[in-house]
Amino acid sequence: MASEGGEDHRLPRIASAIRVIPDFPKPGIMFQDITTLLLDHEAFRDTIDMFVERYRDKRITVVAGIEARGFIFGPPIALAIGCKFVPMRKPKKLPGEVISEEYSLEYGTDIMEMHVGAVQPGDRALVIDDLIATGGTLSAAIRLLERVGAEVVECACVIELPELQGSQRLGGKPLFVLVKAAAA
Amino acid sequence: MACGEDKEQDPRIQGIAASIRVVPDFPKKGIMFQDITTLLLDPKAFKNTVDLFVERYSGKNISVVAGIEARGFIFGPPIALAIGAKFVPLRKPRKLPGEVISEKYVLEYGTDCLEMHVGAIQPCDRALVVDDLVATGGTLRAAMNLLERAGAEVVECACVIELPELKGRERLNGKPLYVLMESR
């Protein structure tokens, strides 16, 4: 597990708090398990602080968190910055009128949904998830936000798997991560 | 629309209740769905919601906040961060990557299952269970069972909204339930 160079003193503890589970969900995948980070209160606090410090002066008006682990990191950031939190969900979970965006999986496709009316034209958005792999999920979230006229300022994740080149699939939007890890 | 406790209602509760949207006939006809996503769009209401729980649980030696997937992931972590507790996600089957313990519970038609990571909880832990809403209490009861099987003491269950007609409060094996508002 490697963290960003020029390194903030909080990063080693954050990186070492993440547990790697081999062969989940299938053989060959090294799964980055953030649940152990959530058991280390100081490391979880530091993770949130590092995002808040980066975004508090960037006039962010909405944090969009991707179901389900983006729901863990997004709301504390939104609360600290004082902006809206919008959940980006799997199909048929949101009760009101939604807009939907299809995205590719390794085999087949999935759909991401957002409530109509949650985000307005001119909103400045941050997209949050625990991890970026291929970038498919994040790029679906970006498309949903842009379809309603928001400006996506940045995508932010705790972990990146750089070999999978997800940062190339964000429509030119910047990506900020705390730690980088091997995919397999 | 939700109504709060009659006596000594904290002045913040009215604004929180007003921010919750009711969506009729979701997920099926006859159900009036309490949609907290509109609360999350109101930074002051969301902050007040978290503050009310934090004020109640600070200084009670809560060592773990267990949040139920997925909307418990939105309210649980900010509370855990503020009171200095671990956060433990309680998840649908096959989402958690490590070794888990599982608890089955009854739905209107059929059963479902809630899982927790082995090792997340220690026998000395004092736990708070958090979800957005309590209806029949089945999910909360399954959560409590998981925590108790791992040796924790469940101090209280906490939800934003209760549907009192569904009598969930009576299904918590004598454990107390704290809610900000009731809805009929």
UniProtKB/TrEMBL annotation, chain B:
The keyword Ubl conjugation does not apply. InterPro entries: Ade_phspho_trans (IPR005764), Adenine_PRTase (IPR050120), PRTase-like (IPR029057), PRTase_dom (IPR000836). GO terms for biological process: adenine salvage; AMP salvage; purine ribonucleoside salvage. Pfam families: Pribosyltran. Keywords: Cytoplasm, Glycosyltransferase, Purine salvage, Transferase. Homodimer. Belongs to the purine/pyrimidine phosphoribosyltransferase family. NCBIfam families: apt, PRK02304.1-3, PRK02304.1-5. This is adenine phosphoribosyltransferase.
